[in-house]
Design brief:
homodimer; about 270 residues; alpha/beta; Arc Repressor Mutant, subunit A; Rossmann fold; 2 domains; two-stranded antiparallel sheet; 12 strands; about 25% strand
Chain lengths: ~270, ~270
């Protein structure tokens, strides 16, 4: 390939970095692809780093050593972050979301890539450099969000199932008590899905009583693994007795009495 | 903000475009954010377009008119595409993937963001400009891949459930016959999840007999909607009688007799 201009090279570098969040990429890769000396690529990277940081679009970190290179940490500017949380609050306030049983319909939010990708950047920002091995969720509604967090952290997703599937091979199943309704439920995870002694975070749509999170802790114990963090889109603060104490959320919500609607506000984590 | 250099502007434009696939972004947005005239931004965009096309990293299309602007269509170079399909084949050949019942364990592939994001770009490339409204899948294993396709197409995901959840409000439920084992199963979808007269595509991990795809067609009928395309990671060509005829896949697989392993090859769509 002929020589490319600096303009062209920084476009290609930006594209590759943003598509491989939290993955170390050696300068050789850029050097080969773009037919330029490593010293030239290093200068290009300075430009990419400076403008991304200036616009709060993420960080480019340098990793020294033989296995070194650069990696991209996704970011979102403070104002967009607050605006995003406020937009979610507005959407949740819509009374037509309340379905029989005083539950709130949030499926459309959880399956909208525009929303999920932003929420994923916000939640994952808490977990870089914590040595997380897997992002764990329970089927079904939290899967896209958990996937986005896993993609940003550059690690695999693990989905716990409610039932046993023949395609999963041997599984470990536990019973747990749902924090909200006190009912006994099951969680099942393939023995192959995780290496022992892993560090995991749990990502979901809602946190109510924390029973599911407690169940995941117990299940991870069976894999000699550890739950080191929890992140959700919505914290139901109407349920005051939680079985877990440390978690982050993007918005907080409380059902008002007599189906009069909801009180919703951005979480402290966002402000 | 002070004036930025062209190098800096093209980095920011690339970042915004790649994070908003298939979404029309007005030049005003770039002009405001980067404090530059629209004519300058237009020149920047030419640079971004040329290098992304040259490296087969995607296309930047111009949409004329009042609601116009530019949009980014993700792409993957032909060689990476083939290499990717061959890597999947290698992974699938591993005999330890065969679990009791002669099923193949593919959960690790379907939950790995590095794999799913590439497969998502490849499958979505078939469906740009087809006016797709929703990407549909059935829980659970295909969700991350379906989400990636939805993200690339800039449209919402719809997840069909096996059971009825209280948090979904009123649902439509149908019975269908699984193509592989002939058993009757259920699919359930919230009435709120889709506008009537929508065009949908179905994305999943495996296609065996096509019974699930046929079930989805029937369920979409209940929403006065239409299935206009199917894409899967793996086509099991050992099952020769399919209930659907048009679909794309990335690799083809056939179980050999007596659990002797698998025959796997890239699909024609890839080559």
């Amino acid at each position: 390939m002929e020589k490319l201009s600096r303009n062209s090279r920084v476009v290609a570098i930006t594209k590759i970095l943003t598509e491989n969040p939290n993955k170390v990429i050696g300068l050789n890769k850029f050097s080969d692809l773009l037919n330029a000396a490593k010293s030239t690529i290093s200068e290009d990277i300075v430009i990419v780093r400076e403008i991304l940081e200036k616009l709060q679009m993420g960080k480019v970190e340098t990793i020294a050593g033989a296995a070194g290179g650069i990696k991209f940490i996704p970011g979102i500017e403070d104002e967009s972050r607050r605006k995003f949380a406020e937009e979610i609050c507005e959407m949740l306030k819509d009374k037509s979301r309340i379905v029989p049983g005083n539950f709130i319909y949030v499926t459309d939010l959880m399956y909208d890539p525009q929303i999920v990708s932003k929420a994923g950047v916000i939640l994952s920002s808490e977990f870089y450099n914590k040595g997380v091995d897997y992002v764990v969720t329970v089927e079904t509604k939290g899967i896209p969000l958990a996937y986005e967090v896993a993609r940003n952290l550059g690690i695999p997703l693990v989905i716990i199932r409610r039932d046993n599937k023949v395609t999963e091979g041997s599984t470990v199943t536990i019973n747990y008590v749902s924090g909200t309704n006190g009912r006994i439920q099951q969680m099942s995870l393939s023995k192959r899905s995780m290496k022992p002694r892993s560090k995991c975070i749990f990502i979901d749509d809602f946190l109510r009583g924390g029973g599911t999170a407690q169940g995941i802790k117990d299940l991870l114990n069976e894999f000699e693994s550890e739950l080191i963090g929890i992140g959700v889109l919505i914290d139901n603060i109407g349920v005051t007795q939680k079985r877990v104490d440390e978690y982050i959320s993007i918005v907080q919500l409380r059902n008002l009495e007599d189906e009069q609607g909801l009180e919703v506000k951005p979480s402290n984590f966002i402000l």
